[in-house]
Amino acid sequence: MKKGRPTWVFGYGSLIWKQDFPFLDSRPGHIIGWQRRFWQGSHDHRGSADNPGRVVTLAAAPGHTCDGRAFLVEPVVFEHLDHREKNGYQRVAVDIVFESGPISGVLYRASEDNPAYLGPASLDAMVEQINRCEGPSGSNRDYVLQLARCLRSLGVDDPHVFAVESMLLRR
User: Fold this and answer.
1) pLDDT at 1 > cutoff 80
2) Alpha helices, DSSP H only, in the chain?
3) To the nearest 10°, the Cα dihedral for 148, 150, 151, 152?
4) What is the mean pLDDT of residues 120-124?
5) E-strand spans in the chain?
């Protein structure tokens, strides 16, 4: 990220549908070597300290791609984004691949060593947790359903997200 210049931010979770920040441009893109997983705890948005929700982070996955949406933002926007993504997420440099080719940007990732990291769990356990959690930003269930809806609108097939969504809808 060059100081003073607009930067591309890759969104793979709630940034896809909740742009509560100004941006100069937006376009679909993907990153290579990562998969979206419901392995991060949300104590601040979709759950509470006693009952954290599950939101997506990225897990290393050589040979895979993670599709999403990128936003070109002015440097001042990072003050807001850093606060929004504070619960274990860190800004990480990444190459974002657009139809026209790759470009340097950043994303927010919650690594395995952050205090809110929940890690993998069975589909049943994740869905049970998601179904009961609610926080200041709404229900954890709505987060999953919004993400699935937005991924479909982008033409993205994400088996992990859609499996969680499918089980949520059956309960």
Assistant:
1) no
2) 77-84, 123-132, 140-153, 159-170
3) 90
4) 97
5) 7-11, 25-42, 53-73, 89-98, 101-110, 134-135, 138-139
Determine the Cα–Cα distance for residues 136 and 145; give it in Å rounded to an integer: 17
Q: How far apart are CA 31 and CA 122, in angstroms?
A: 26
Q: Do 18 and 61 meet the contact criterion of CB atoms below 8 Å apart?
A: no
- What domains are defined for the chain? 7-170 (3.10.490.10)
Which residue in the list 85, 99, 112, 128 is annotated as catalytic?
85
Closest CA to 27 of 67, 87, 80, 74: 67
* Torsion angles phi and psi, residue 75, rounded to 5: -55, -35
> Mean pLDDT score of the chain, rounded to an integer?
96
CA distance 27 to 22: 14
Task: Calculate mean pLDDT across residues 72-86.
Answer: 96
CB 22 within 8 A of CB 74: yes
- Decide if 165 is catalytic: no
- Are the beta carbons of 45 and 16 closer than 8 angstroms? no
